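ZP: hey, is the manganese (III) ion complex queued? I don't see it on the tracker
AM: it wasn't, my bad. submitting now with these inputs:
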Amino acid sequence: MFQQYEIPYAYNALEPHIDELTMLTHSTKHHAGYTKNFNDALAKLPQFDGLGAEQILTRLDEISDAALRAAVQNNGGGFYNHNLYFAHLSPNGGGEPSGELAAQIERTFGGIAPLREQLSAAGMGRFGSGWAWLSANAAGELKVSSTPNQDNPIMESKGAWTPILGIDVWEHAYYLKYRNLRGDYLKAFFEVVDWQQVARSYAALKA
Ligand code: MN3
């Protein structure tokens, strides 16, 4: 059974950037639903027993039944993506990364400000529901991308790229507070990004 990431801060801890009701609903309804439906789908796929979620997401094409494959893609993605999202937010977030991640961001994007611009553009450019991502590969290279629905870079690259930061741009992530103003939510998001955790996720991938 896959377990939903337990948010280690209060639902109102990211105020005023991300509001309490959005955090509560996002975690206890949306994320909980993806997690339950992922586990329910996996109960019908004994061949995946013992695999991690990341491994399962690289092997969707081994699921012959189209409806079951869609259930694992949507809910497995939803499970994994939200674990990542909530784990890289913090009431003590914002600011800039340091160390090796900061150096690689400088080399790849020319600094944190241009990276934020690229991530925001990826989020703004996503039509409908989806995600913007900062991902890394085993060589330590970085890239920004966007995916629809609950897809993610692991699925698209068969595991060659792993996200180290995900920005949820589904309306459920911001609509209660920001209504149609996705750009305002994206600005606020960067006030609560835990760059130290992003740096740890980056270091873990290279290890
Ligand atoms: Mn969401």
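AM: back. The mean pLDDT is 97.
ZP: great, adding it to the tracker
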